[in-house]
Amino acid sequence: MYNLLKGKRGIIFGALDNKSIAWKVAERAHEEGAIFTLSNTMAAIRFGQIDELGEKCGAEVIAADATSVKDIEHVFERSIEVLGGKIDFVLHSIGMSLNVRKKRLYNDLDYNFLNKTLDISAISFHKVLQVAHKKDALNKWGSVIALSYIAAQRTLYGYNDMADAKSLLESIARSFGYIYGRESKIRINTISQSPTPTTAGSGVKGIDGLMDYSERMSPLGNATADECADYCIVMFSDLTKKVTMQNLFHDGGFSSMGMSLRAMDMYNKSLENDEINEIE
Ligand SMILES: NC(=O)c1ccc[n+]([C@@H]2O[C@H](COP(=O)([O-])OP(=O)(O)OC[C@H]3O[C@@H](n4cnc5c(N)ncnc54)[C@H](O)[C@@H]3O)[C@@H](O)[C@H]2O)c1
User: Counting beta carbons within 10 angstroms of the beta carbon of residue 24, is it exposed (0 to 12), middle (13 to 18) or buried (19 or more)?
Assistant: First the structure.
């Protein structure tokens, strides 16, 4: 370990169970010397395993619905109190779509569900930033990260209204990044992670096929949740002070690929099969 976060105070939103990306970030932040609080919804705290993580990392768990400004205010107030000062890093690792859960297709969305998707998965990021800003809760050179997915830029079958939420999330990082950077030297970025086997990830239609496809298409293979945690730690550290308003792809190279040799071989083989079928 490198003590990259020694002396830093943080807030980590979104650890549910030991598969969660936020869970891995908390474990790594603890190893790197940070102190932090954990936050999730009351239901997630009751049904998930976050208390276990809190004990392991010496972190207080604070219940909050990320769509409630009041709840977020409480998270910041309580965190500053228990951690003994202003906050240096924040992880927003929150996402949920009722349209995905209820298997509503993109051309048959329930608009109440869509509003919830956008509020939980994107506008909550604005709420976290606005509360932090109004309360002057972040230290100079602090770092805020939200987790995104390439469906913000490209159409991936099955990702549904979460694609719209991720586009908005990335836009909020840029818009707030300007204000917060200019005023307080605070950096705001999104990390666009490979498909990852977590509770949220497994809700996406066709996730197994998607994970297999991007694993084969990425020269370095899919990035794991542990590797995502490593990247978050670097982004929270003082080694990345001038990186802001970026969407940072953490995907083994997937986002820059068009066609791989392997995919080309498979494509050619499937064409050969088609020709054989036609002859038969
Ligand atoms: N798993 C993937 O394939 C993948 C890929 C790229 C990005 N991401 C993003 O990573 C983030 C974390 O997801 P994960 O894959 O670790 O899954 P996860 O299910 O472990 O985490 C999602 C979290 O969001 C929390 N949440 C839902 N509604 C909330 C609300 N109203 N208030 C506060 N918290 C709420 C859940 O309780 C849960 O802890 C999400 O933003 C997700 O979209 C995931």
Answer: buried
